[in-house]
Amino acid sequence: MAADQHGYVTTDDVRELGGTAQVLVDMHRHGQLQRVAHGLYRFPLFPPNPRDELKQATLWPRGLGVISHDSALDLWELCDVNPAKIHVTVPRSARVRRHAPALYVVHVRDLDPADVTTSEGIPVVSARRAILDGIERHLDSRLIDQAIDNGRRRGLLLAGELAELEHVK
Q1: How far is it, in rounded angstroms, from Cα 105 to Cα 129?
Q2: Same domain, 55 and 21
Q3: The pTM is what?
Q4: Closest Cα partner for 148 from 133, 162, 137, 134?
Protein backbone atom coordinates (compact mmCIF):
# COMPACT_ATOMS: atom_id res chain seq x y z
CA MET A 1 0.00 0.00 0.00
CA ALA A 2 2.80 2.42 0.89
CA ALA A 3 4.51 1.72 -2.43
CA ASP A 4 1.44 3.02 -4.26
CA GLN A 5 1.35 6.12 -2.05
CA HIS A 6 4.93 7.44 -2.39
CA GLY A 7 5.89 5.64 0.83
CA TYR A 8 3.04 7.06 2.89
CA VAL A 9 0.60 5.12 5.02
CA THR A 10 -2.32 6.35 7.10
CA THR A 11 -4.03 4.99 10.17
CA ASP A 12 -7.07 4.29 7.95
CA ASP A 13 -4.84 2.21 5.65
CA VAL A 14 -3.69 0.06 8.58
CA ARG A 15 -7.26 -0.40 9.81
CA GLU A 16 -8.31 -1.40 6.29
CA LEU A 17 -5.64 -4.10 6.40
CA GLY A 18 -6.92 -5.37 9.77
CA GLY A 19 -4.37 -3.65 12.01
CA THR A 20 -4.56 -0.90 14.58
CA ALA A 21 -3.11 2.59 14.71
CA GLN A 22 -0.87 1.41 17.55
CA VAL A 23 1.18 -0.54 14.99
CA LEU A 24 2.19 2.73 13.34
CA VAL A 25 2.99 4.35 16.67
CA ASP A 26 5.22 1.41 17.60
CA MET A 27 6.96 1.43 14.21
CA HIS A 28 7.56 5.17 14.58
CA ARG A 29 8.96 4.69 18.07
CA HIS A 30 11.40 2.06 16.72
CA GLY A 31 12.53 4.32 13.87
CA GLN A 32 10.87 2.34 11.09
CA LEU A 33 8.44 5.15 10.17
CA GLN A 34 8.53 8.93 10.13
CA ARG A 35 5.48 10.71 11.53
CA VAL A 36 4.51 13.35 8.98
CA ALA A 37 1.21 14.56 10.41
CA HIS A 38 -1.66 13.36 12.54
CA GLY A 39 -2.47 9.85 11.27
CA LEU A 40 0.05 10.08 8.41
CA TYR A 41 3.39 8.26 8.36
CA ARG A 42 6.12 7.69 5.80
CA PHE A 43 8.53 4.82 5.29
CA PRO A 44 12.03 6.36 5.01
CA LEU A 45 13.09 3.55 2.65
CA PHE A 46 11.24 5.33 -0.14
CA PRO A 47 13.33 8.14 -1.62
CA PRO A 48 11.90 11.64 -1.37
CA ASN A 49 9.94 12.74 -4.41
CA PRO A 50 9.36 16.32 -5.60
CA ARG A 51 5.62 15.56 -5.53
CA ASP A 52 5.59 14.35 -1.90
CA GLU A 53 3.78 17.44 -0.63
CA LEU A 54 1.01 16.92 -3.17
CA LYS A 55 0.59 13.28 -2.17
CA GLN A 56 0.47 14.29 1.50
CA ALA A 57 -2.28 16.79 0.70
CA THR A 58 -4.43 14.07 -0.88
CA LEU A 59 -3.92 11.70 2.07
CA TRP A 60 -4.46 14.30 4.81
CA PRO A 61 -8.27 14.31 4.51
CA ARG A 62 -8.52 10.53 5.08
CA GLY A 63 -7.31 9.83 1.57
CA LEU A 64 -10.23 11.67 -0.02
CA GLY A 65 -8.33 14.69 -1.33
CA VAL A 66 -7.82 15.56 -4.98
CA ILE A 67 -5.29 18.17 -6.15
CA SER A 68 -7.24 20.98 -7.79
CA HIS A 69 -7.35 24.62 -8.81
CA ASP A 70 -3.96 26.38 -9.19
CA SER A 71 -2.10 23.31 -7.92
CA ALA A 72 -3.64 21.13 -10.64
CA LEU A 73 -2.82 23.72 -13.30
CA ASP A 74 0.76 23.63 -12.05
CA LEU A 75 0.90 19.82 -11.83
CA TRP A 76 -0.38 19.53 -15.41
CA GLU A 77 2.10 22.30 -16.39
CA LEU A 78 -0.68 24.14 -18.21
CA CYS A 79 0.31 27.68 -17.34
CA ASP A 80 2.81 29.77 -15.41
CA VAL A 81 0.79 29.80 -12.21
CA ASN A 82 2.92 29.51 -9.09
CA PRO A 83 0.64 28.55 -6.21
CA ALA A 84 1.84 29.54 -2.76
CA LYS A 85 -0.39 26.88 -1.21
CA ILE A 86 -1.60 23.45 -2.23
CA HIS A 87 -5.21 23.42 -3.35
CA VAL A 88 -7.02 20.20 -2.49
CA THR A 89 -10.69 19.41 -3.06
CA VAL A 90 -12.57 17.07 -0.75
CA PRO A 91 -16.10 15.71 -1.12
CA ARG A 92 -18.87 17.09 1.06
CA SER A 93 -19.07 13.70 2.77
CA ALA A 94 -15.46 13.96 3.98
CA ARG A 95 -16.43 16.04 7.03
CA VAL A 96 -12.85 16.79 7.92
CA ARG A 97 -12.88 17.91 11.55
CA ARG A 98 -9.20 18.76 11.90
CA HIS A 99 -7.88 22.17 10.96
CA ALA A 100 -6.18 22.10 7.60
CA PRO A 101 -2.42 22.59 7.65
CA ALA A 102 -1.48 26.17 6.78
CA LEU A 103 0.02 24.97 3.48
CA TYR A 104 -3.39 23.80 2.18
CA VAL A 105 -6.38 25.58 0.70
CA VAL A 106 -9.27 23.15 1.10
CA HIS A 107 -12.19 23.30 -1.32
CA VAL A 108 -15.36 21.30 -0.73
CA ARG A 109 -17.04 19.96 -3.85
CA ASP A 110 -18.43 16.65 -5.01
CA LEU A 111 -16.41 16.04 -8.15
CA ASP A 112 -17.77 14.14 -11.12
CA PRO A 113 -15.72 10.92 -11.46
CA ALA A 114 -14.89 12.01 -15.03
CA ASP A 115 -13.15 15.07 -13.56
CA VAL A 116 -10.71 13.01 -11.47
CA THR A 117 -7.63 11.22 -12.77
CA THR A 118 -4.11 10.53 -11.49
CA SER A 119 -0.69 11.86 -12.34
CA GLU A 120 2.33 10.05 -10.94
CA GLY A 121 0.01 8.26 -8.51
CA ILE A 122 -1.50 11.51 -7.26
CA PRO A 123 -5.27 12.10 -7.55
CA VAL A 124 -5.76 15.29 -9.53
CA VAL A 125 -8.63 16.96 -11.35
CA SER A 126 -8.66 16.83 -15.13
CA ALA A 127 -7.18 19.66 -17.14
CA ARG A 128 -10.70 20.82 -18.00
CA ARG A 129 -11.77 20.92 -14.34
CA ALA A 130 -8.54 22.70 -13.32
CA ILE A 131 -9.17 25.43 -15.91
CA LEU A 132 -12.81 25.76 -14.83
CA ASP A 133 -11.61 26.10 -11.22
CA GLY A 134 -9.21 28.83 -12.35
CA ILE A 135 -12.01 30.66 -14.14
CA GLU A 136 -14.25 30.42 -11.05
CA ARG A 137 -11.45 31.84 -8.88
CA HIS A 138 -10.90 34.69 -11.37
CA LEU A 139 -7.37 33.64 -12.21
CA ASP A 140 -5.69 36.13 -14.56
CA SER A 141 -7.18 35.72 -18.06
CA ARG A 142 -3.70 35.44 -19.59
CA LEU A 143 -3.03 32.37 -17.46
CA ILE A 144 -6.41 30.89 -18.42
CA ASP A 145 -5.67 31.49 -22.12
CA GLN A 146 -2.23 29.92 -21.68
CA ALA A 147 -3.75 26.89 -19.93
CA ILE A 148 -6.33 26.39 -22.67
CA ASP A 149 -3.72 26.76 -25.40
CA ASN A 150 -1.33 24.31 -23.71
CA GLY A 151 -4.16 21.86 -23.01
CA ARG A 152 -5.15 21.99 -26.67
CA ARG A 153 -1.56 21.54 -27.95
CA ARG A 154 -0.82 18.66 -25.57
CA GLY A 155 -4.09 16.84 -26.26
CA LEU A 156 -5.37 17.20 -22.70
CA LEU A 157 -8.61 18.83 -23.83
CA LEU A 158 -11.20 17.41 -26.19
CA ALA A 159 -12.94 19.56 -28.83
CA GLY A 160 -16.14 19.78 -26.77
CA GLU A 161 -14.16 20.77 -23.68
CA LEU A 162 -12.34 23.48 -25.62
CA ALA A 163 -15.65 24.92 -26.82
CA GLU A 164 -17.04 24.81 -23.28
CA LEU A 165 -13.99 26.59 -21.85
CA GLU A 166 -13.99 29.27 -24.53
CA HIS A 167 -17.68 29.86 -23.81
CA VAL A 168 -17.38 30.18 -20.00
CA LYS A 169 -14.20 32.24 -19.86
Answers
A1: 17
A2: no
A3: 0.89
A4: 162
